[in-house]
User: Fold this.
Amino acid sequence: MEDGLACNLLPSSRLSPKVHHLVCVIGSLDKTTEVPIINKEGLIVWESMQQVLFSNYDGSWSDEVHFDEHVSRLAPLAQELHAMLLDGNRFQNGRHLQEYFKWTSDEMTLRNCFECLSGSNPSPEDVQTCLLLMTAILERSLGNVFLTKNPCCPSMVKDLLVTKELVDIFGETALFCLRILMGPPTSLNLRNLIWHGFVRPGEIPPRYAYFLLVIIASLGGMLEDHRIDPASVRQSRTFIDISCHSDLLQSRLPDLSVDEMISLAWNLSIIPQDMRALWSKALDGCRDGRYSHSAVIILPLLEAILRELFAEANHCPGRVLTAESSALFTTFDEMLSSSMPDGSENKLRLVIGDAIMEMLHDLLVYPDGPRLRDHLSHGELDLHVIPPSIVTFCLFVIAALSLKISADSQHGKDNLFTKVGASVNTYQSVFHPTSILLRDFIKVCHSLNMWSSLPRPTNDDGFCEGASLDKSALVERATVIACKLTESSNECESFLDAVAKFVDPVTDTTHFTSFWKSLRFQTLFRPRAELHLVTILQQIVIECIHVDENIQGIAKERFDQWKTRNLRSRQRVNYQRFLQRFLKKVLKFSENLNSMTERNKWDESCELVMKFIGLVEEFLPKLPELNFASSTDERSTMSGLSRR
Assistant:
């Protein structure tokens, strides 16, 4: 079947009339051309391509107005390449062609796409999956080439394709072909159409998948001509690691195995009928361990489903279609916001509920979350190590949506759906700033529990030997405050006993952390002022974590050296002074803070806390003099840590 005819036989499209005409009608034109478009190695002859695209054309290569004309010229060439790749007698260089994928960010996946597309009768679902994979890999790879010339890479592929850096390497004709395929909204814009879930399998003429594959190889040939080492291109930047995110999301999943989740997902009523074959391919990928294939299929499908719900909830049916060049697509960013462009309330929240909205924000929106669609569609993730749990979480979200929206009473009777519903009802955000603050705060509390068990010398070890500190007053003061905290009248026999008596009740945070874990915070669409406050608190807690790590590390290291007598005399004295002076200042600070809070003097309390932080900052630079840190670089690294 001709690819243009296949397109037009499909049910009503999600493509707007103008986009549909460009992609499915003009993009499916066939014309005979006598110009040789590939060489004996299977690579594109760019001079021939330029002759076809620009003959009798007096415009600029960057002109966006006449893309209809450009597509009409390119479509027959793409169909010619398509036919050649499928004709083994006409095209004998398929294996050799794959050698030119080495410059890309994922050579293996492109080889698999080539094998799939050049096989016998690939399905429309196969073609669409290959397009999703190839556009992501190509965008990442072009960015890597750009970075060999300039450290500031554009974030959008349409901007990347007009940069001088890439023009100097690949030439105007090659980049213009790419701009016709995946450039601005007036182009075919294939990358955005498929990744935002606007097209169904078979709707994009398959010729463009084959054409894009040959272009990628031909770009590799040009890099070879420029003597640019493929290894240097691949090493321009590393992939983003989302394994820590997947672990946290896994903690929110229902108590179901992967097989049970797949079994549940097979017959979800929320999956559009014309997308069921694609959905089945995604589930097959989960079952076979090809999680990258599942993820690239599920995310656009999720966006298409959510767009239908969004349009219905807000009474704007036209928003399910692609926008024309004068407007923006309706994407996750708008659908998951609190309000519509006109300022009115986004009613999608009322339809799907806060819990599912939080799940979607965790997966797609929050800056400290995996931002799965963004990272995956821009080629920023290693497709070979996509965590299974994060794909399972995607299935969980769609199952939750189906349970919420569907009128199918069987959902409610299914034990698997019962578990999904229970997990939705108790869902709390993982990656909202407030959730991260609470998690880090509890981490500090758990760590404080370890302070009382830190190894430290006793008086029998001669710890206070030779010290000039007048301990009697300090012991007396420490005893008073420690006894007050513990409601005890026991006296302390030594300075260390006094400090321990004071610190122990503070570091016993078991009940305290249990209380904080039991709290449920409102995290959806919070005021900007609140988020600003949370950010400040988060920074404070992070610094506390670093201080705690430093103190615990130093205490353990120096105690080991103390016990083995590996500390030189000066180091032993410094170790004594470290414990005495630091703990003395902590004690003084705690005593004053206790007094201020008893008298309801909160401004003074804040000033006191700031002064104490200043004391800590003053003390830390002196650590090199005490030989407590291994190197200046290590301390700089620790102090410079911050959350992305």
